[in-house]
Amino acid sequence: MARKKKHEEHENHERWLVSYADFITLLFAFFVVMYSISSVNEGKFRVVAQSIVEALNPMIAMSASTIKIVPDNAGGPVSTRVISIDMQVYKKLSEAIKDTDSTGRVKVGQGERGVTVSITDTMLFQPGQAIILTEARDTLSRVATVLKDFPHQVRIEGHTDNVPIHTKEFPTNWELSASRALNITRFLSEGGYLPAERLAASGYAEFHPVASNDSPEGRAQNRRVELVILKVLKTETDKNQVVSPVELPCVMNLGLPGSCEEQAP
Questions:
Q1: d(CA 139, CA 123)
Q2: Burial letters for 37-63: b for 16+ Cβ neighbours within 10 Å, e otherwise?
Q3: Which of 79, 84, 120, 204 registers the highest number of CB atoms within 10 A of its CB?
């Protein structure tokens, strides 16, 4: 009986495809992991950051505007500044005002621009005047003492109600609001409380109200001066955003050194 010839096995030349497929799968998984690590979920980040801040400062509400997510200048991954120094400014100012004013005429708040100290006109000036009252200087100096330890620019904004004014000194509310802001700016600068390059002044007349001008209470709220401590977010390679400082002009009847009356021959 003839013996069957043993069938020779065919050699498989495509076994490299198995190793290649495994390698591609691992490489894909590697890049997926790297991408997930480099990406920041902004929503979850804000929630976690706010929880941390509230735990550390339970008496102060955390504003989402104090949390910033900004790209690096070098184009690298996202970098974050969790707790802004604006929160420190808000806390210290609140404590300083609480010790100074119990009448509610000075309010500290936070917004998109930064921390704002709002002072009603009755605490600062006589009606229709721009000369700072003596009793108001203690409050202004306390605010300046807090701000001296921080790098923020400060913009002093004057506001009025919609009641027209027409005097020799102040033909309109524009002049009144601007003169009040300039007076406070000069008080802070010339009194040595804050450097002039950190200050700016502006007058808004009746055009930025915070309440309705239809009632005496609303008009009283609108007659105010606001010290806006402009928000700062500084990196190692960035400089602070600077509001152009005002070169203080000669303003009539301000009751301060350097007014037009003293410069006249």
A1: 9
A2: eeeeeeeeeeeebbeebeeeeeeeebb
A3: 84
Please list, in sequence order, all residues whose beta carbon lies within 8 angstroms of the beta carbon of residue 52, skipping any fewer than 6 positions away.
82
Alpha-helical runs (H) found in 85-172: 85-100, 121-124, 136-147
Domains parsed from the chain with CATH numbers:
16-81 (no CATH), 85-263 (3.30.1330.60)
Whole-angstrom distance, CA of residue 222 vs CA of residue 206: 8
Arithmetic mean of pLDDT over the chain? 76
Which residues, in sequence order, are CB contacts of 25 under 8 Å at separation 6+?
Answer: none
**Amino acid sitting at position 82:** V
Instruction: Tell me which residue has tokens 């009356």.
Output: 261
Beta carbons of 122 and 115 less than 8 angstroms apart = no
DSSP label at 58?
T
What residue type is 164 in one-letter code?
A: P
Backbone angles phi, psi at 142, to 5 degrees: -65, -40
Geometric angle at alpha carbon 231, from 230 and 236, rounded to 5°: 125
Q: Are 82 and 49 in contact (CB under 8 A)?
A: yes
Give, to the nearest 10 degrees, the angle between helix 173-190 and helix 136-147. Answer: 60
* pLDDT-derived band at 30, boundaries 50, 70, 90: confident
Four-CA torsion 29, 35, 37, 39, nearest 10 degrees? -150
